[in-house]
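Quarterly update from the structural biology core.
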Amino acid sequence: MSPILVGLTSAGCILGGALLGMALQRLLPGHHLGKEMQDLVKLSAGTIATLTALVLGLLVSSAKSSYDGINTGIVQGSAKIILLDRALSRVGPEAQPARDQLKRAVAGGIEQVWPGESTGTSSLTAFEKARGMELVQDQIRTLTPHNDVQKQLLAQSQQLANDLGQLRWLLIEQAHGQLPFPLLLILVFWLSLLFVSFGLFAPKNLTALVVLTVGSTAISAAIFLVMELSEPLDGLIRVSSAPMRNALQHLSDPSP
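Predicted structure, tokenized:
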């Protein structure tokens, strides 16, 4: 589901809980809203609020860790791309086709994951279908060393290419991590219950309604943030393309 849609739906459900509480305030007999009942509701609301804060905090922390892991992997991959190009440049002119293929693979990857215009296709799906690095590996395998130095450089190049291929699939698997839908439903249910308790004893005026609306929006924004960070290659909050673009700039530099 779209993080924006999830955020808006969550905000509607949470605010709906507050409105339900206000409606119950009018329907329930007066002795059901006495001091003892207020204390009981506050105690229950405090328990729910503690559980909700704990779960939501853990979700934000987990999503941020996943986002940082993807970002770190892209930085590491960019550095290895530069090292691979430098190793191939030292092999000699016969490695130029492999270097050209590497440059095309990097440029194509940037365009697929960070397109200049919307293509309607998930960046993760496009990244998963890319085969540029496999072609680079094939190009390196066709090279024949003529001395010990070239043999060492080609072995290093093959290892770097293999590391990049492994890193690519590792990033893909990490990016596929999604927030479990049942957990999301339980979280929204807890928050809705919490706002029912708020609305049950809220004053009947516009200011109270505005405060409850702002509160539900703020909490749904946290849920939206969790969803966005769980999809680091898509959405509004995506990992930066700067490391890959910097690597591409180094590949365009003819100096060894």
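DSSP finds nine helices and no strands in the chain.
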